[in-house]
Amino acid sequence: MILPALLLIPFLYIILAILIKSKKVKTWLSFAFSLINLGFAIWVMAQVFEAGMIKTQMGSWPAPFGITLVADRFSAFMLLVSALVFAVVTLYSIQSVDTARIKNGYFLFAHGILMGVNGSFLAGDLFNLYVWFEVMLMGSFILISFGGERAQLEGAIKYLILNLISSFFFVAGIGILYGKMGTLNMADLSQKIAQSGDVLSQLSPAMVLIVVGFAIKGALFPFFFWLPASYHTPPPAVTALFAGLLTKVGIYSLIRIYTLFLYHSTSFWNPVVLWIGILSMVIGVFSASSQYDFRKILSFHIISQLGYVVIGLAFYTVAGLAAAIFFLGHNMISKTNAFLVAGWVHRERQTLNLKVLGDMFKKNTLWGVLFFISAFSLAGLPPLSGFIGKYLVIKAGIESGHINVALVALFVGFFTLFSMVKIWIEVFWKNTPPEVEAPVNTKPLPHGLMISASIILALAIVGMGVFAGPVVNFCEMAASDLLNTELYINFVLK
Amino acid sequence: MIGFTTLENSGFLFNIYIGILLAGLIGIFVVSEKLKPYLSALVVLLVSLITSLIAIQGINSNGLEFLIPGGSFIGDIPFRIDALSAWFMLIINLTMITGVFYGIGYLRAYKPIKSIITLHWILLVLFQSSMLWVCMVQNSIAFLIAWEIMSLSSLFLVLFDHADSKVIKAGINYMVQMHLSVVFLTVAFIWVYFETGTFDFKGIDIYFGSNANLWLFVVFFLGFGLKAGFMGLHSWLPHAHPAAPSHVSGIMSGVIVKMGIYGIFRVITFLKADFILLGEIVLTFSVLTGLFGIMNAAVQSDFKKMLAYCTIENIGIIGIGIGVGLIGLGKDQNVLIFLGFGGALLHVLNHSLFKSLLFYSAGSVYQQTHTRDMNQLGGLIKKMPQTALLFLIGALAIGGIPPFNGFISEFLIYSGLLAGIHSVDIAQTTLMVVSVAGMSIIGGISVFAFTKTFGTIFLGSARTELHQEPREVSKIMLFPQYLIVLVMLSVAFFSGYFLNVILTILNGSFHVSMEVGNVDYLRYSSVLQHISLYSFLFLAGIGLIYFIRKSITKNRESTYQSTWGCGYVAPTSRMQYTGKSFTKPLSKLFNFVLIEKKNFNELKSNEIFPVSRKYSSSYLDFWEHWLINPATKYLDLFIDLFKFIQNGRIQAYVLYGIIFILIVFIGTVFHSSLQ
Q1: With a threshold of 0.90, does the pTM exceed it?
Q2: ipTM beyond 0.95?
């Protein structure tokens, strides 16, 4: 019964947060619940590590009929990393988010997102996946528009419209599938598709719709436009949370349906997904290098780095998938941490425009080091997690004969490094331009909790890099589970 | 492959080295601000000592090898230290030691923030180690990582002066070009991996054994050439070297560009065919590099930029040696190999010595005067006599004038070119003749350029009012420079010893066998020793006359007039010959390469009483002006074409999605109809 707990914990907090008036209690309770959630995620991980997969049938209905919650190694990994990111961002938010937002239920909606994310990772049927997507969307839409600044609303509307379109595509695809196959349980569906060979071509429209739905969620080419248009507007903590969790759920779902349904026609889907990945990688990184806003650069890099994950998927080998899973985990941690640093800069200087920033390294060396770690991890320098991730993707590419793709991935890495060094120079190293008025408050604002949050993630980055061996082994096991579709079907249905 | 011996001992030394490095890095982070520079110097010293021991073992034991566990991904990383690696490691260590001590004194003039100073020293220590790793590792991935750490740490060292936007710009330029270099190298390494399935450098050996040699070598040459600063690939260098603090410029120019040379040599050790063709390409390219570098050096008025261009010239000279050696390998003539490669290797050492000396003394001038424009200086020999002397020694050495060390290596390369003239191939003979001519022009202009620089900075009288009276720099800055002079002289006077070391390197790392002590090779050293001796006697004679004159005139009264006073009643410093006027004829002669840019307002014909106005002129880099700037401009314009895609209109974004869906739908229809 531990899988439903992952849904109940955030839900419980939401109820408590409505009842409790005290801001302080609400805040610390939120952190406590995020830790409990992390504890459960670890527990799930421990169980999955032993058993390979665990499931829960809600209401004791057998598999194709009732609601199924399944956690295989891939889900457990994602649950663990997202729980870690969530706990850290919660800790960070305590100090970073302003009182007005906290009073009005910031943490409540954050837990709404967590519930959606956990649900998506555990969902055993497509319609449930859709529902959890909507839960996540609701929470995130409120958080992104919360505060109601003009720029924020503009970004929020773009975000909402494109995500609603994504949901529309997704649900339309689900409708077609249900009409044809009469089931939405993913294992059941996969089995039925496998048994009735020629049905597949008739299902293409549904599959295309679903893939497009996930691609919008995952901010892949050519659907990524909502992300850079909206991510730089809300408070930094919110962006950090979004960057760590939201798009990754879209990618998770893409991998899930790819290994369950789409693998039948890899000759068609592999090139399509490969090109989506390559173009996301390249266009993301190029757009980033022409930006002059800290968060916008990082946002474009999200697109570029999701491209890496997707090409790992498109190689469709154990090594490729393992690389994709590892990269996904690494990216959630590193990217979130980069946004946390941006949040500190924003708090100190009230702006993230690179042209007017400067001198931040002098202001606080430790934050500079933290940026170093997360930025160079994103750029793929050893001994950080990004190096391992990139190395695995490129190696998988070479081994599966996609040498050109591997080279593109490598060059994108150099551009990433360029952007990161640009941020470093402009924000941390150079002097504040003389025409800019020096910031009024020279005394640093309190940032103890913020910095401890960031240090936790930085340690995770270094740890994932230095002790990569076991993590990679786990990712390889997860990948071979994913490729063995029979295993999943048999486990869920029997 | 050359047989490597595995020694337990060197692995042990290596562990000690890593221990010292880590302890040092943490130590620098922890100790108080005052101690940081000294601790860094200590760490550099210890690291140099231990790695030099490893290097010497490498030379003596004819190559040694040990494996360092690199985790489950890279596998065991082979560290192989043959004589070639050892040679470069020793050069790195020597330059780092002088650089770090000079740096202690140099940075005293700055009062920056603590964190920046800490970062600087940590990076300096890391920088040394990364260069050593580049010389030692023989696994592509580990090599690229070390290479990357080297580029990044040097980048952050260049960026030290964060208040200056030009420095930032130079730094970004440097970073972009270094990554271009990594791109070429990566392509080359992946190419090798794809063909042979191994990341070990042995793969390159296997590749060259079974595939065409030319193109892979060209890709490697482009990658390493960017670091070394061959013409056309050089444009980061004249920006980055002046921008860096002077001890870093000295180290960069002294050794970091040599890492490019090391890479080229390393690839040559694996080369199996196409020697003559590649040799001719490298030779031609290098002669042009040398000419281009020295012409630009001659006309610059920023003296650090001038030294940077001069580095390009010397890379050209080294490249000429490499070209001759390659031709020698192709024709199987040991004399050519010895003179070419040997000259080049020795010139690597020599250049690292006198170029760091020049950068250090130029840095002393900059520290005292706060300007890099030589046309604002003058007469500094009276204020900074020791610095002037050191600069002069460096200038003489770089001009290839005996008894200094530059002469030795240039003599070898000249002899190589002359020996190469005896060829049945008329094209090759012509190339050699042209190269000899080119090299003598290089040498001539080099002397010319340094005459100008030395004359303008140190002779005459001050041209402008400086913010403070310049004084001689501190002892800790002078001491490393004297140390360099000492090494320079020892190279010059014990050239026989150094030539024997070079022979060991050639035997140990290239596929040749040359007897140590063979008369054919040693006759060059005896010639050199004679020349050194006589020129030393000549210098000693001058010194003697100077002292005799001084002791005679000691008790007599003597008056000093301003230089170039020439009996004028009211001489001003503006009457002096400027550096610019000195080089004007040269720049006119070569105006197809040396592009002059003048800034002034034209005098109008109706202006009877013109008010005061300014005139300034500077020289543009030919390649930057005609190739790199237009290319980046068009790239910018090209990227701007795509701006309309991200236009902020949500309708458009939805439209893209719909277009994509249409394409995929059509794709599925065609795909299923095809099946």
Answers
A1: no
A2: no
